[in-house]
Structure formats: structure tokens, C-alpha cells
Specification:
mainly alpha, two-stranded antiparallel sheet, 16 helices, about 85% helix, MATE_euk
């Protein structure tokens, strides 16, 4: 039996109990270290995600409140605003946001590498590209009445929505400036500025929309005036902040480098747009497909209620998407590949925990929440019936946007675009149509099949993320900063 105090070659020998105690102490120290890492990264995450979620909700609420006021004006006005917001502006929003998402990769990695001056160059370059994209999208607004009628919308609603879309064209060009500014500020973690600006504009938008649309009776014209003013006000206030503060050196004035290597920038922007649009439009198509089912009125109303709830939940997901893309791009740009990996783990655990909570809330309230949106017992019953699919959609969408954010932060947009095409449009969509129409499962079949596509995409992204060589990604980030920085990279 070993005695405490015995020595061998001048080294004290430990008893088995002392060895076990020492091992336990080492394990406890490792555990404390991991908990410390988790808490550190969680704090960093919420510093970005919290304001980003608030900003997303505030900006989403502007369109929702306008739609609510339009419903007080009349049924035709409500239909016109709804169609323009969900179809015309929705399509443009997806394209413009997607094109600007290239900045999340480039600005985030440049900031992490300490090349702050490059952020201003990148933002200007994105303005050039998005203004060109906005010009290409103007026919969507100009011929929106004809486009909506081609999709089966009644002539009266299509003409009203088309008229409103023409008035909303200034919003399209506001997007061209807003999204690059948003990514520019996010990359530096200046999300509180965006939150305060969005909150102030939302309050102003609410008051003036009520005055113009209801008190003065301007109807759709008042809605268009306030939405355009609100979006441009967000752009102007954020731009003033950048010009006045110089954004800690990230803005160094206008530069001809904005026009350098535009083609390489366009390719990454298009890949980002394709990736994001394939995700945003996927569930939007659900309402269109359900509308083709026999006796679609009740299913369409039920799915619309579920999509409304899912839309609000998506604002939380967008916040985490922004947070993880910033954290991953910053850390990779700085060469801290181990911290980037820790960031992915922490945000995945956090978002899934919130998603699971939302999953339980949907299931627990499935018999009551439909009555908050409809007075029809038939619609409420159908909504309750399909709420189980909504619950799983909410759960999956807690992780899926996070993995997409990782892809944006690391610059995997092209790869994820191919994954999305395969999972969503070659598997999920055909499966939904087959189950809904061929096997007569109706809305449950259509939505269930499409959720299968999300499951497959999420599983593939988990595998890709798990097998990633983060050191190699950090090396590629540094190479990317040098490639697209122009002469600014050497300053």
C-alpha cells in the first residue's frame, strides 16, 4: 500500500486517494474554464443579438402597422398593402438583403483583421452594386399589376396593389443604401445605434401613419408617403452617424476603390442573394401552393395565421443570424479560429434552447392562439390541427438561420446555395406537393413535405459545420481580405 510522503527519484509519490483528488481538481478546473468560455462568448453573442432582434422587430413592425391601418381604411386597401408587402416588396427585400449579405463576410473579416478602412470601401462598393440591382428590379414594381394578375389575383386587387407598388418605388432605392449600412455597422458591433434609430423611426411612423391614413383620410397615398419617409429616415440617420463619428476609422471618405474589382464583388453578392432568397421564398411559396388545394379558403386562412406567428419568431432567428455571422467573420479575420468554433457552439445551444421553448409554447397554446386571429370556428379548428407542423417549423428555424449565419460569416454562400436548391426545391417542394395532392393530405402534407426539406438542409449544414477545418477557414479569410481590399488592405 502506497504511503503519503514516500518519494521516488526525489519526486513525492501520491496515494490513490490523493491522485483521484488531483484528477478531480483538474477536471473541475477544465470545467470552470469551459463554463467561463461559454459565458464569455454568450455575453458577446447577446451584445449583438439583443439589439439586432429589437431592430428586426422594429423594422418588421413598420410594414405590419401600415397593414393594420390599411385594414381600418377598407378591405381593398388592406388587400393592396398586403399584396405589395408580401409579394412585390417581399421579393425585392429578399434580393436586396441577399446582395448586401456579401458585406457580412467581407466587412466582418476585414474588421477582425484590423483593416477598418476597408469597411468603408466595401460599403461604397455594395452601394454601387445594389443601386444597379434596384434599377433592374424597377420593372417588378412598374408591371406589378400585370404580374399579380398572372398569378391569379383579381383585377381589382391587382390594380390597387400595382398603384401602391408604383408609389413604393422610393423604398426600393432606400433598401440599396440601408442594407450595406446595416452590414457595415453590424460588422463593428454597432448594433445599438441601429436599434435606437429603428425605435425612434417606428414611433414616428406609427403616429404619422395614423394621422395621414385615418385622420386626414389619405388612405393608400398616406401609407406610401409614411413607409417611404420612414425607410429613408432610417438611412439618413444612420448615414449621419457614420459621417459624423467616422465610425472609429471605418469611414475615411469617398474612394474610387469602390469601383475596383466590382465583378468579383458581384459574384459573391449574387451567391449571397441566391442563398438567402432560396430560404426566404421557400416558406412564402407555401401559401401559394395551399391556395391551389380544393376548397382552399379555410386552409389559406389557417396557414396565414401560422405564417404570421412564424414571421415574428423569424425576427429572433434573424438576430442570431446576424450575431453569429459577425462573431465568426470577426474571429476568422483575426485568425482566432478556435474562438470562431466556440462561437458556433454557443450560439447553436442558445438558439436551440429558445426554439425548444417556442416549440412548447405553440403546442401548449394550440387550442387558444388561433382565436386571437380569427372569429371563424372552422379556421381556428384547422389552425389548431396544423399547429403541430408550426411547432416543428419554429424549432427547426431556431437552428437553421444560425447555420446560415455561420455560412455567411465564413464565406460559404455558393456551397449553401447548392445545398438549398437540392434540399428545398429538389426534395422538400416536390415531397410537399406529392403528399398534399397525390396522397390527399392537404395542407398538412404540403407543409410536412417542405419541413422535410428544412430538416435535410439543417442536417447537411450540421455535418458541414462539424467537419470544418476552422484553421483553414481563418487562412482563407486573411487571403480574402487581401484579395478584395485593393490598396486599402496595405494601409
Amino acid at each position: 500500500m502506497m504511503q503519503s510522503g514516500q518519494v521516488e527519484d526525489g519526486v513525492p509519490l501520491l496515494t490513490q486517494d490523493e491522485q483521484k483528488q488531483q484528477h478531480s481538481q483538474r477536471q473541475a478546473a477544465i470545467s470552470r474554464s469551459k463554463i467561463g468560455e461559454f459565458n464569455y462568448e454568450s455575453k458577446k453573442l447577446w451584445q449583438i443579438a439583443g439589439p439586432a432582434i429589437f431592430t428586426s422587430i422594429s423594422q418588421y413592425s413598420m410594414g405590419a402597422l401600415t397593414q393594420t391601418f390599411a385594414g381600418q381604411v377598407g378591405e381593398l386597401e388592406l388587400a393592396a398593402v398586403s399584396m405589395e408587402n408580401s409579394v412585390i416588396a417581399g421579393l425585392a427585400f429578399g434580393v436586396m438583403l441577399g446582395m448586401a449579405s456579401a458585406l457580412e463576410t467581407l466587412c466582418g473579416q476585414a474588421f477582425g483583421a484590423g483593416k477598418n478602412k476597408m469597411l468603408g470601401v466595401y460599403m461604397q462598393r455594395s452601394w454601387v452594386i445594389l443601386l444597379g440591382t434596384a434599377c433592374l428590379l424597377t420593372p417588378l414594381y412598374t408591371y406589378s399589376s400585370f404580374i399579380l394578375q398572372c398569378f391569379g389575383t383579381s383585377k381589382e386587387i391587382a390594380e390597387a396593389a400595382g398603384k401602391f407598388a408604383l408609389w413604393m418605388m422610393p423604398q426600393l432605392f432606400a433598401y440599396a443604401f440601408h442594407f450595406p449600412i446595416q452590414k457595415f455597422l453590424q460588422a463593428q458591433g454597432k448594433v445599438l445605434v441601429m436599434a435606437w434609430v429603428s425605435a425612434a423611426v417606428l414611433v414616428l411612423h406609427t403616429v404619422l401613419s395614423w394621422i395621414f391614413m385615418l385622420r386626414l383620410g389619405w388612405g393608400l397615398a398616406g401609407a406610401a408617403i409614411m413607409l417611404n419617409i420612414s425607410w429613408w429616415l432610417i438611412v439618413i440617420l444612420q448615414l449621419i452617424y457614420i459621417l459624423v463619428t467616422k465610425s472609429d476609422g471605418a469611414w475615411s471618405g469617398w474612394s474610387w476603390l469602390a469601383f475596383a474589382d466590382l465583378w468579383g464583388f458581384v459574384k459573391l453578392s449574387v451567391a449571397s442573394a441566391v442563398m438567402l432568397c432560396l430560404e426566404l421564398w421557400y416558406l412564402m411559396m407555401l401559401v401559394v401552393i395551399v391556395g391551389i388545394l380544393p376548397n382552399p379558403l379555410i386552409p389559406v386562412d389557417a396557414i396565414s395565421i401560422c405564417m404570421n406567428l412564424q414571421g415574428w419568431d423569424a425576427m429572433i432567428a434573424f438576430g442570431f443570424n446576424a450575431a453569429i455571422s459577425v462573431r465568426v467573420s470577426n474571429e476568422l479575420g483575426a485568425g482566432n479560429y478556435r474562438q470562431a468554433k466556440i462561437s458556433v457552439t454557443v450560439v447553436s445551444i442558445t438558439s436551440v434552447a429558445i426554439g425548444f421553448l417556442a416549440f412548447l409554447v405553440v403546442l401548449a397554446t394550440r387550442d387558444t392562439f388561433p382565436h386571437l386571429f380569427t372569429s371563424s370556428e372552422a379556421v381556428a379548428k384547422e389552425t389548431t390541427r396544423i399547429s403541430i407542423v408550426l411547432a416543428f417549423t419554429v424549432l427547426l428555424n431556431s437552428l437553421q438561420p444560425v447555420l446560415s449565419g455561420v455560412a455567411i460569416g465564413a464565406g460559404w454562400q455558393s456551397l449553401v446555395a447548392y445545398i438549398n436548391i437540392a434540399c428545398y426545391y429538389l426534395f422538400g417542394l416536390p415531397a410537399g406537393i406529392l403528399l398534399g395532392f397525390k396522397y390527399n393530405l392537404g395542407v398538412m402534407g404540403v407543409w410536412g413535405g417542405m419541413v422535410g426539406g428544412i430538416c435535410l438542409q439543417t442536417a447537411i449544414l450540421i455535418i458541414v459545420t462539424s467537419l470544418t477545418n476552422w484553421k483553414k477557414e481563418a487562412d482563407e479569410a486573411i487571403s480574402r481580405v487581401r484579395k478584395w481590399g485593393g490598396s486599402a488592405a496595405d494601409e
